[in-house]
Amino acid sequence: MSVVDRDRVVASDFADAAETLAMLGSPIRIHLLWVLSQGERDVTGLAEAIGASLATTSHHLRRMRAARVITSRADGRHQFYSVDDPHMIELIAQAVDHHADLRLRAAAPSRTTGE
């Protein structure tokens, strides 16, 4: 777990964090960020990776780019998207890992002690 320098946090950081978390309140966006945390991709590759249409994928990418969660670059006629912020990558990894862990613990046979 990372240590936060509490001296650099100001009141507006809480509102900004809430906006970021609200924007991430979509399974599609979480999945896109999960895929992008592994490297840059174009919209077609992202749509295939998450099993969504190009229109749906593009819509979510536009929203995340407008919120400055992801970046894009043009290469000829293609747009390539990436997530470069290590905080965002860690946030997504921790959230997804947390829920995978909860699912696996719930599925594990319970242990009883003594009889």
Detailed description of the structure:
- The protein has helices at residues 11-23, 27-36, 43-50, 54-66, 86-107; strands at 41-42, 71-75, 78-82.
- By secondary structure, it is mostly helical.
- Strands 1-3-2 form a 3-stranded antiparallel β-sheet.
- Helix 3 (43-50) crosses helix 4.
- The model has no long low-confidence stretch (mean pLDDT 92).
Q: Given the helix and strand composition, which structural class is it?
A: mainly alpha
The strand order across the widest sheet is 1-3-2
Number of helices: 5
Note the overall shape.
globular
CATH-defined topology: Arc Repressor Mutant, subunit A
CATH architecture: Orthogonal Bundle
Order of secondary-structure elements = HHEHHEEH
Tally of strands = 3
Any idea what the radius of gyration is?
18 Å
Instruction: Average the pLDDT over all residues and give the rounded result.
Output: 92
- How many domains make up the coordinates? 1
Question: Which spans of ≥5 residues are poorly predicted at pLDDT below 50?
Answer: none
Q: In CATH's first tier, which class applies? A: Mainly Alpha
User: What about the largest sheet?
Assistant: 3 strands, antiparallel
Amount of beta strand: 5-15%
